[in-house]
Amino acid sequence: MARNVLAVDDSKVMRDMVRLALNGAGFTVREAGDGVEALQRINGDPVDLIITDVNMPNMDGLTFVRHVRSKPGFQRTPILILTTEATDSKKAEGKAAGATGWLVKPFTPDKLLDVVRRVCP
Q: How far apart are CA 35 and CA 41, in angstroms?
């Protein structure tokens, strides 16, 4: 059975890259352009993994992660941050918000799949 992934990024190109990498490996990918839209997408729909950017309009990725972690049933859902942000302080902020892992853009499909398979076997 295919795993359901939600890709959250304000860049359509980046969402397409994530979708293409994961669809080829048997994952089903849904998309959202920011944290507000992503919260709407997870209401009532099962999600096995969330991949989110940090810098987005309307609701940034770290705020989105905090909202997801406060929702019943999402405390253990793996959440990967995929962003250009690479400072230790920003990574610590992501971990404190509840992120499972951190990937820095640009990424290769193989690297993304490796991390995704580790957190969502």
A: 10
Residue listed under structure tokens 């959202």? 32
State which residues form the domain around 94: 4-119
How many Cβ atoms sit within 10 Å of the Cβ of residue 25?
13
What's the distance, CA 46 to chain centroid? 14
Tell me which H or E stretch contains 67.
helix 61-70
As a whole number of angstroms, the distance between CA 12 and CA 92 comes to 27
20: helix, strand or coil: helix
Q: The domain that contains 82 carries what CATH number?
A: 3.40.50.2300
CA atoms of 60 and 35, how far apart (whole Å):
6
Tokens matching residue 75: 């405390």
**pLDDT tens per residue, the chain (121 residues)?**
689 999 999 999 999 999 999 998 999 999 999 999 999 999 877 899 999 999 999 999 999 999 999 999 899 999 999 999 999 999 999 999 999 999 999 999 999 999 999 998 7
